[in-house]
Amino acid sequence: MGELLKKKLGRVWFDYLAITFGLVCYAVGWTAFMLPYQITTGGVTGICAIIYYVTGVEMQVSYFLINAVFLGFALKILGPRFSAKTIYAIFVLTFLLWFFQRLLEGPDGTLPQLLGAGQDFMACVVGAGLLGLGIGVVFCHNGSTGGTDIIAWIINKYRDVTLGRMMMYCDIVIISSCYVIFHDWRRVLFGLVVLFIMSMVIDHVVNSTRQSVQFLIFSRKHDQIAEGIATQIDRGVTMLDGKGWYSKQDIKVVVVLAKKSESLDIFRLCKDIDPNAFISQSNVVGVYGEGFDKLKVK
Questions:
Q1: 254, 215 in Cβ contact below 8 A?
Q2: Which of 145-154, 198-207, 277-286 has the lowest mean pLDDT?
Q3: Of 254, 256, 257, 263, which is closest to residue 292 (Cα–Cα)?
Q4: Domain range enclosing 219
Q5: 212-218 and 278-283 beta bridge pairing
Q6: Is the torsion defined by CA of 12, 18, 23, 26 positive or negative?
Q7: Are residues 51 and 199 in the same domain?
Q8: Which of 165, 191, 214, 295 is most buried by its number of CB atoms within 10 A?
Q9: What is the CATH number for 266?
């Protein structure tokens, strides 16, 4: 039990380390490419950027205050485990936004345009890529950067809508409101470009770990593995009878259909129980039914 506890704690620490990496990417995207070129996008950070451009109040201040309100929803709907990582992400991102602004700002207190003057579009593309990568990594480890990320996760929990698309719906209104303040369609168009690139990157990063997979597990400890998958991973298990043609011995085959994001947990569980288990994993085109996609054929 002590060894298993150590492994579980190690995995939790890895999740937080990955979330921290995602937050670093996100903070660099804002402070190095978005803010110096006065580019905005949706979400709470987009609102905070607009506040920064108009009043000079730094992003981390308004970001922290706004997200304090959203934490109440996360605690009630998404559960304490998700909210713990959300609270961590909000505090760390608040610090990182402050840190990278202090690190990059020039002698006059302004953020330099690292790509040079007139490179607004390139800054838009690079910054959006970093923002999408950061959010995607955070989502993959059951975290959130707060704000509309929480709204996207709540709706995604009950509706079959991708996270990137849901965030896009939430954020279009925020980007459009930018014109009311600045009366500049250029800012709105750049914001939409950022939103489009972010959505594609987020969906690519997150969906690459959410595809369905099929496992065929061959192990002498098949009962323990099946019970562990059923109770700890909360996935249905089917036991098939088989026969090794070379050994002529009867064997049991554990068949599991799971989300790709659960693959690592299944591999870890099998390794903890039987390091010598033989496992086959394959991608499946579609899985429909309880716990997976709904069958939508009329």
A1: yes
A2: 145-154
A3: 257
A4: 212-283
A5: antiparallel
A6: negative
A7: yes
A8: 191
A9: 3.30.70.120
DSSP code for 76: I
The span from the CA of 253 to the CA of 243, in Å, is 9
3 state DSSP class of 252: strand
The rounded distance, in Å, linking the Cα atoms of 57 and 49 is 9
The number of folded domains in the chain is 2
- Residue 191 pLDDT: 87
Together in a domain, 110 and 228: no
Residue 297 has pLDDT above 50, yes or no: no
Alpha carbon distance 22, 138 (integer Å): 6
Domain presence at residue 296: no
Distance of CA 155 to the CA centre of its chain: 15
Instruction: Single out the residue in 207, 227, 254 at which a domain terminates.
Output: 207
Q: pLDDT tens for residues 185-214?
A: 888 888 889 988 988 898 888 776 557 888
pLDDT in tens, 27-64: 999 999 999 988 888 888 888 888 888 888 889 999 99
pLDDT score, position 282: 87
Cα R_g (the chain), whole angstroms? 23
Q: Is residue 139 part of a domain?
A: yes
Residue 73 lies in a domain: yes
